[in-house]
Each structure stands twice: as structure tokens, then as C-alpha cells.
Amino acid sequence: xxxxxxxxxxxxxxxxxxxxxxxxxxxxxxxxxxxxxxxxxxxxxxxxxxxxxxxxxxxxxxxxxxxxxxxxxxxxxxxxxxxxxxxxxxxxxxxxx
Amino acid sequence: xxxxxxxxxxxxxxxxxxxxxxxxxxxxxxxxxxxxxxxxxxxxxxxxxxxxxxxxxxxxxxxxxxxxxxxxxxxxxxxxxxxxxxxxxxxxxxxxxxxxxxxxxxxxxxxxxxxxxxxxxxxxxxxxxxxxxxxxxxxxxxxxxxxxxxxxxxxxxxxxxxxxxxxxxxxxxxxxxxxxxxxxxxxxxxxxxxxxxxxxxxxxxxxxxxxxxxxxxxxxxxxxxxxxxxxxxxxxxxxxxxxxxxxxxxxxxxxxxxxxxxxxxxxxxxxxxxxxxxxxxxxxxxxxxxxxxxxxxxxxxxxxxxxxxxxxxxxxxxxxxxxxxxxxxxxxxxxxxxxxxxxxxxxxxxxxxxxxxxxxxxxxxxxxxxxxxxxxxxxxxxxxxxxxxxxxxxxxxxxxxxxxxxxxxxxxxxxxxxxxxxxxxxxxxxxxxxxxxxxxxxxxxxxxxxxxxxxxxxxxxxxxxx
Lengths: 97, 466
Prior knowledge:
The complex is a heterodimer of chains A (97) and B (466). Chain A is mostly helical.
């Protein structure tokens, strides 16, 4: 509750907060052991931020930011789960041909 | 400090030693397995799977890495966001959604109802019209057999198509044995049904028209809106199997005027073992249940609703709604890349089914003068199939391709490339490269291909009978 009020008072996330979220998502994406999920998370992060680059309405910026934060939490949890059950054999896409 | 150093160095030493021992053991194992592999495989067929960091051996095939996956019509990987929604219901929230007396039941029930709304939202229905089942096969069975059994006094006839999924065709076969009439509509060379033929096939006692939305083998999209209009005109219930359409093309139950629709979870990056059936409430369609019991899902599908699976399906539907546009753009681009890549480097590549009216994630190609099974055998690093997973065990050419009138030799060489949300450009390029290499290799030793190159028309050859 207090956090929500503070966020409302602060208003829209700053440029550095957005960039930090972007970098955290990319960092977490790289930690996925699965080739396809790793590539997708990277690609989706970049495309998502690119798509929302032109947002100007404070409400939509705030909601996109909180959505991104929720996605980061999901990615963090899932990258751990994927690493716990990673197959011994890598994808042929991860092997040098 | 010194003691610490000693301890750490001794542990490294131990590690090196164990590694060496392991390597030696592995070497010995390789030796022994290569000499007696054949005998062992015969005696213990289940133990021929061997996996280590250098590769995997299974069914006598050795692959250095896990194959790239291009078989999205068979099943799709679970999206990590879907798994994230499901896991809580495999851990502390294990309640039975039908338990009415405690928190465990209530929270599960809430989760199931949320999932129901998520599924309904994706198809433009009301949550009350969604029944959870074990998958699209069960939904198809309930639809086809359930409707005809319920209205059996007045309705004795079903119309379907020759290219339906096996479970619809088999349910129809079952009805025929019970004395119902079934019309199997033929399709054109593009895989699409003739609307006039459908119109003329409808009889006063027709109880159901069942036409699938997107074909699982060739990806062709049927003109559902038009079929829905014809069914409305004659007041015949319309069922569609939308397992391959959900989340991939826009699905709207009112636009299509469907009375029943089968949906599947594992084709849309959700879990296996769950599906849904849409049943229209106005005008109401009724079915005879296949399973009797506790009366769950309004008595249409008794049995405890599997909360984690249903939650997964709901999450997958919500994601599909958000991601459809993004995914579609990407998948279309990847399909183009795949097709252009093949056509640039190979001649005699034919797309099976309509090119315009198809879902981009399904590309069914035939490679002339090449035998399909040999091609698949040579493509061990690409997970593709020759048709549907259900029929890939037999060497018979696909009945769907035969219904399209594809020549026997071309039907034998078909490969279905299924592109999905997680497919990458690099995978497509690798698949093209491997396929082209394999096709060229097979054609090099094919006398047929040589003759064609010399300008002989194979169809004119009089083969000697033996």
C-alpha cells in the first residue's frame, strides 16, 4: 500500500528506471538454458521496448512499466526452473557447426 | 591461509582424478557398447537410450545435440509464462475446485473460473459456454457423437469432410455403425470444400455439420463464415475443430456461427491433457455426455477439473490474445524465409494445399523424386514430420493429401514444417540448409531424377510388370 502510494506520488518511471528494467530483462534472458526460450526472451524484450518507445501518456507508460516488471519476475523464476531441469545435451543450435 | 590453499588444491586434484576416471569409464563403455550394441538393443529395447554431454543416442541414431523443433502442429513447447501460472497449483494450492467447504477448494474454483473467462475471451464467447475437457479429441467426440445421440429421434445424418482429423472421422465411423448416415464432403486440390456441395448435401434430418477450421496436416483455412451462414440458413448445428486455429487466426464464435467448437491447450503453448469445448447457449445446443459421474462441468464432462492444467490453458489463451499479432507477423516472415530458401536452391518443391488460404505456421511441402521416409531419416537434426503425428507411424501416404488429389509419388515425399512462437531465423536457415543437402544427396542417387533431367517424362514410362 505504502509502495503504491509512493509510486503514485513519484508518478511516471524515469528514463534510467526504464533502461535498468530493459537491461535486467536482457540479462535474465541470457540465463535461460533453453536455446529457443533464451532467444525469444531477448527478442521479445527488445521488440516490446521498441514498440513502446513512442508512449507518451503517463498512465500507459506506468502500466507498461509495471507489466515489464512482472515479466522480469516471471523470467527470473523460470530461468531458474529451466536450469534445474536442463537436458545434458544442448540444442544443435547451441553447438558450433 | 596455507591450509586453505592446500585444501583447495587437493580438491582440484580430486576433481581432475574423478574426471579422468569418468572419461576412462566412458571410453570403456563406448567400446563395449559398440561391439554389443546390436545384441543389447534386441534384448533390451528400452535401454538403447544413452545421453551424455557429447550427444544422445536413441533408436540407434546418434545426434550431437537436441534437434531444432519444427513440428508445432504435433505439439508446442509450454510457454514459460504459462508454466509460471501453473506451478502454484502443483504446490500449495492443490485444492479440488469442487470442494465447497474450505479455502483450498475456493481458491482452486476461482482459478478455474478465471481460466474459463480467459478461454472465452479469446473466442468471443461467454464463460458459461466453455466446458473443460481432456483435449480436442474428447471435445470432438462429445460434439459429434453427443449431439447425434441427443437428437437421435429426429436427426440421422452428419456432414463432414474427407480431410478432418482422425478423431472426427472415427466418431463418424462409429455413428455409421449405429445406423446413422454420414456424408464425407470431398475437397478441391487446394484443400477447401465446395460450398455448393455442402448446401446440396444438407437434408431435413441433418443433425450436424462438422468442418475443421485449420487443417492439421496442410494448414488450410476453411471458409468458416460462409459455412456458418449456410448452416444458419438450414438451421443445422455447426461444429468446428479449432485446435489448430485457436490463438493463431482470429476466432469468433458469433462471426462463424458455430454451435460447438473444440479447442486444445497444447497447440497454443499450454499444457498437454487439457482442452475445451464451446457450446452455444442461445440457441441452445444439447449433447449426451460421454462420461457420467459427479456432474462437474454442468454434467457434460464429469470428473474433477484438473486445476493446474486448466489454469495453464487459460494463461495460454490470454497470452495468445496479447501475442497473436506479434507472433503472426514473425511466423509469416519465417514461413516466407523457409519457402524462398527451399525454392531458391531446389526445383520440384510443391506446397500442398492452398497457398493463399493457409495458416503461415504450417508449411507442407513435397519434394519431387525423393522418398519422404528417407528424407526424414536423413534429417535427424530437424524435428519435422511427414504429416500428422497420429498417422506418422504408418508408411501409407496421408489420407489428407490423397483427398487433395496429390499424386501418390508426391504424397509420399511430403514434409510438414511447423513454425511457432519460439522459432528463430537461424533455425529456419539451418533447416533449409540441411533439407537442401539431404534432398540433393537423395536425388543424386535417384535414377528417376536423372531421367527427368534428360527430359524424359516419368508419367509416360511404361513400367514392366513383375
